[in-house]
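Record 1 of the preview.
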Amino acid sequence: MYKVSNLYDNTNMKMIAEKGAFQVFEHEKDLSVSPSSAITAYFSSEMNVRRRQVLINLNGNSATVQAGAMQWMLGDVQMETGVKGVGNFLGKMVSSAVTKETAVKPIYTGKGVMMLEPTYKHIILVDVSEWGGIVLDDGLFLACDSNLQQKVVARSNISSAVLGKEGLFNLSLRGDGIAVLESSVPQQELIEFELNDGCIKIDGNMAIAWSDTLSFTVEKSGKSLLGSAVSGEGFVNVYRGTGKILMAPTA
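->
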């Protein structure tokens, strides 16, 4: 048995989102400041630069978390690495090298609660089943339900990575569960496109997540290289098919 005080009833901690086992808390103000940093802390709070934390409620379920992200855990909660031998570990190391994600993501199982480390980034909770399968930009993954299937997906061609300023490989999640994303852009600014056998062209690597059912290529913005050069756009990222795209309108 356990009791937690000054969390749910903390006037400086506000729960701003909840899906499945995951709750997002936001620190309204940074109270641990000195006179020399008080002005910065005040204006940071006014401009929505705030610490945010994810609380995971475990009731016999399990959650996969980015390595090093756990702050504290309470109750009958066990951690395992998810590594099933030397070969599996080497495979995870290769995946880590190509996707820029941590090689081993700990899995926490049991009955209790755990809090992740505070971050100034914005936390987005995504129901993966609504995407079919979702491909994530590098560094976006923070946590997810452990029943979600994780795999590394490769670009269909090298040009789509080089010209599109994207990596050759990305982390993909598929199944029925919630993914916790750590974004530099708040959810209020993100634009979601839903294509039904359609096409969208984006200037630059502004898409942070997309359905794995979509094909991604890099093409000239105009009908010719000269036309593309004159327009000032050059090459654009093109997504075709049926699925969703989450785009950050600001860099």
